[in-house]
Amino acid sequence: MPKSARPQSRARPRLVRLDNLKQEEMAGDRHWKISAGLAVAAGTSLLVIPSVRPACDGLVPTAMGGAVPMRCHFSYRVELLLAVACVLVALTLFLLTGRETRRLGGFFLLILGILAAVVPQPWIVGTCGGGTCHTGGTWFETVGVFLAVLGLQAAWHASARRQQFTSEPDA
User: Fold this and answer.
1) Which of 140, 141, 156, 161 is nearest to 105 (CA)?
2) pTM
3) Is residue 16 part of a domain?
4) Which domain does 109 fall in, by range?
5) How does strand 59-61 pair with strand 14-15?
């Protein structure tokens, strides 16, 4: 049957070429790896801050005659646990590629970043307000806000829907 005698079919949507999808996916993955790498670096900096700006080793006397560490000591301990959790979640974001995994990891990173920023506040655990403790608390707050923003961006980016069909007719 000659080409001109073939019946004309109605135009129907077709899939975007696989090459184009792969290129878009790779470009998005590159940006994803940059943000996940920044999250790993920020989480690692939360681990390093206590060694650069250590908590004071002052003691508070108790009514029984003993002494307990100041609240900045406990704030730094909580930040250490949050830092380990942030690094693990950021590594999960960096290594795993599933959309749901990235969305959930971004949400967890958002929550951990908010907690890291709030722990040095006096209404949670707080710091003693003296020199290095106060500076360390400020760094914890700054890095915590940065992690929260990265987590929000990760959750938002993973939730974005990509259009996989076009309305171009077959030629």
Assistant:
1) 156
2) 0.71
3) no
4) 24-160
5) unpaired
